[in-house]
Amino acid sequence: MIKHRRSPGAALDQSSLGGAAGVEPEIDKVSELGVSESPSQCDLGRVNIRDCTALASGDPATPETVCRCKPVTTRPPAPEPICTTLETSPRRPQASPEPPSPTTTQHEPEIPSPMETSTKPAPASRTMYEGEDDAERRETAVGGSRRRAGQQRLEYTGLDDDGHPLNHVHPHTDPAEKSSPKQFGVLKMEAIIERLRARSSRWGVRSIYIAMYILSTITSTENNSLPLIEPYFLSLFGHHSSLATVGIMTNIAFAVGKPPMSKIMDVFGRAEGVLVAIILYLIGAILTASSTGVIQYGFGRTAAALGSQGLQLSQMIIVADTSSLTSRALLTSTITSPWIFTTWIGPVVGSWFLSKGAFGYRTIYLVFGLAVPLCASWLVLVLWMEWRKLNSEAGPPARRIALPTSDLDQEDQPGGLWSPPNSPNTILYNSRSSSTSLWSEAWEQLDSVGLVLLTLGFGLLLLPLTWSVKEPGVSWFTVTRCSFFIVGVIVLVCFGIYENKFAKFPVIPPRLVEQRTVLLGSAVCFWHFICQFTYESYFTSFLQVARFLSARDAQYVERSYLFTACVSAIICGLLVKWTRRYKIWLVVGILLHAVGTLLMVRSRKLDNPMIEIVISQVIGGFGGGFTTLASQLGVQAVVAHQDVGISTAVFLTITQIGGAVGSSLAGSIWTSRLETALSERLPASERGNIPKIVGDLRFALTYQGDKRTKINEAYVDVQRILNWLGVWALLPCLICALCMQNVDLDSKAVQAQPPEGRPPSSARG
């Protein structure tokens, strides 16, 4: 083993190859650790370099590079030896070399005969990629090293007992992952974080997180207040039974809105995406507050949901931009930590506006319609100011950043924050000559055709779910509903073909579809949300009618699930940071959620103590916090930084689809089964009021005595069915979690397949 100093970017002098003997060396594998400047230090005529590109300088004080050398054997030399620069990757894998001859010693290495040598000059040193052909070698990357799609960076860190190089997947890359060029929004955020790192500006990063904490506080207060108002607001129009329909519409908005929002953030920037979300939320709040019917109310809530999902997604992506994998779970959980106290504040706020009657119903939407955009504007301002400072320091106005497009050189910094690669040659330059080129490039990079196809396909698939709530007695297999499903599937198939064959910047890169952990992690939360939304959609109504709780107290009991989930998410983040593993905590979370859901089945009766209901909510929430956080981390852990945004969007999209399916099942079962249960229990004189009992919560609460008892029993029967559906939904959730790939978060390496012929050093999974 020999150690020597390297100079950044220095290349090996090809004139020195062969040394005194004039022998062209054979290089089996090339290390990425660096090269020597001095030709005298690379006398390859005497030794054969197997795992390094240079010999030692003799200076033991600067051991920056480690080399292992082997004696030269009599094998034919490689046709073209290539010494590479600092950002070097190996060429196409070749057959393993034969082991050294037993008669050969390190003191007397064999020298190839002159007939075996070549005098052809070696090509100039440059970066090599796996699978790269001659045409691709000649292509020049602008502004740094460019990795082409489909190429995988490997590193060779040593020799095995037989003298063969040990190749390992780079610790930031999954074996199945194919990289892609980074887009402007991603590079823009990397430049901002790099500037803050270079200046050791802790205040800049902290200001970003403070803005997100304030935004999370306001949005969590909103989410804990509005569910108290919604049943009474819809009852103004006589459409309390449309509560699930509105929930489905908002879940559809949450689902289909995330991929476009992720694309906007990747192409234009994080701040620009937050700004779009602010505008959508403000429009939705105004429409809701001024609504005169259930249709306008539904459209208003849908627009507000599009804005809310954009704000939620932006926070998740910014956390991923600024954190390492080991700290990401903990930081993500702290973003949702305001839910711990807003769970109790929200119902108080909601009940105060509820006491004001119809005027209060509308006013609360206006209050949050102003508060949320104002708080989100601070986050936009912080990001925009950092970008302006970066531009002023760089000189001319910038439109594109020519940063190295590699995602593989990330480093963990003190405090658990992520740092992009050191880029002393970072260049900011204006690449647009006209507004036409700007918009044409934006159209291409946004993949507008793909976004339209994806949104339309999901909409056609999910829209019939709302009809199942409005028309509970109608079969799911009508011509209209089947037509929507079939057309939706066809549109999604066309989307897949277009993305794979024609899109230059696909909304969902094919490499994500090939990554099983992304798909399985999304499936975990898909089934998890089906479980949660089936038993949660009408839970507050059940508590008010069947258990005689006030609206505020019912909200407290229902929100105990979210309170516990937020607390457990922080605990899960600490456990992940301590163990450097996520999968074990994902499985534990699903099992705890199953225990809580089974207890819900037992406690949803008329005579059970209220403490049993609360305990079941607490246990279920504890498991839910573990499940959602660990599954999201697993999805993000196997993708490159360019794909963090879209992978998070895909994860949250599939999650929200699960919520829409759960709400649809709950609404369909609640409406149909509740009418049946009431008709079986109430006297004939009250059967004409059954649609009103189902549709208006306030009317149901006016009943007393024996009739109220019959109504309560009907509520219990339907709620028990919903809870059993939730229990069964957790079975496929557990299966998907067990099949997910384990990830070593400490080294950011997926437990990859070992080189052929060698067993894995450690198999976890």
Automatic annotation (TrEMBL):
Q: Where in the cell is it found?
A: Membrane
The molecular function terms in GO held by this entry are: transmembrane transporter activity
The question of whether Membrane is a record keyword is answered with yes
Region Disordered, annotated ranges = 1-24, 55-180
**Which parts of the sequence belong to the Major facilitator superfamily (MFS) profile domain?**
208-744
Q: Which PANTHER family match?
A: MAJOR FACILITATOR SUPERFAMILY, SIDEROPHORE IRON TRANSPORTER 2
- What is the name listed in the Swiss-Prot or TrEMBL entry for this protein? MFS domain-containing protein
- Organism equals Puccinia triticina (isolate 1-1 / race 1 (BBBD)) (Brown leaf rust fungus)
